[in-house]
Amino acid sequence: MAKGSLREKKERQEQIVDCLRSEAYWTSQKLCNHLNTSYRTLMRDLAELKEAGVPIESERGRGGGISLVGRWGIRNLHLNNSEVISLLVSLAITESIKSPILVDNVRSIKNRISSAFPIEQQQVISKIRKRILVGNIASENVIRSYSPPRQSVLSDLTDSFFNLNKIEIRYLSSKNEITDRLIEPQMLALEFPVWYFLCWDELRQDARLFRIDRILSTKKTNMTFKIRRSDAFMEGAHELFNNI
Fold first, then answer.
1. How far apart are CA 125 and CA 117, in angstroms?
2. Which of 97, 129, 144, 197 gives the lowest tally of CB atoms within 10 Å of its CB?
3. Among residues of the chain, what percentage have pLDDT more than 90?
C-alpha cells in the first residue's frame, strides 16, 4: 500500500475514533455518510481499530449501532523527545517486572499508545523501544556511589539518543579520571536506579558503557550516526551490560 493510502487510512480511522468519542451512539450508515466512505471500508477500519485495542462495540448490518466502550481517551496529546523516551522506558520497566496482574494490561496499553501515533512516528518508536534495555537492581556498591544526573546533561543525551546524533561528553571514571569523549549513544540501559548509555566510543573505537550520573557535561553535535547491528558490537554490548 502506498504511503499516501496509509496516511489516508490513518486519518480516516482517527476520524472514526473522534466521532465515537463525540457521540455515544452511531449507526454504521450515519458514520459512512459522515466520513463519505463505503460500508465495506468502514467495517475494515473498525476491525483494524479493534485489533489495535480500541474498545469498539458494533452490531451487524448497515443500521447496526457502533459505540466506544467507556469512551475513554486522550485527545491532542503531544509529547517531546524526552517525554516519548520516558514513556517507553516506564512501559519497559513495568513489563520487565512480569507481574501477572500488569503484563497483559501493559501490552495492551503499549499497543494502543503506539497506534495513536502517526505511521511514520510509529516506526521511529518501534526502533527506539529496541534500544532500551532493562536489567536488574544495581549492586549496593553501585547504589552507594550513585547521585542524580544533571538535568542539562539528561536533556542533551536524550535528544542525541532520539535523533541519532553524536555527542561530546566529559566523563568522570570510577578512578576519578576525567576524559573527553565523542560518543554514539546507541542504547539506553537501566540497572535500577542507575542509568547507563551503551555507546560507540570514538576515542577507544569500541563499545563502552557510561554511567549517566558520571557525565559532567555535554556538547551536542550535528554529526549523525547509524545504529550498529554487527554481531561483534551486540555481543560486546550484552557482555558489558551483564558485567555492570
1. 9
2. 144
3. 26
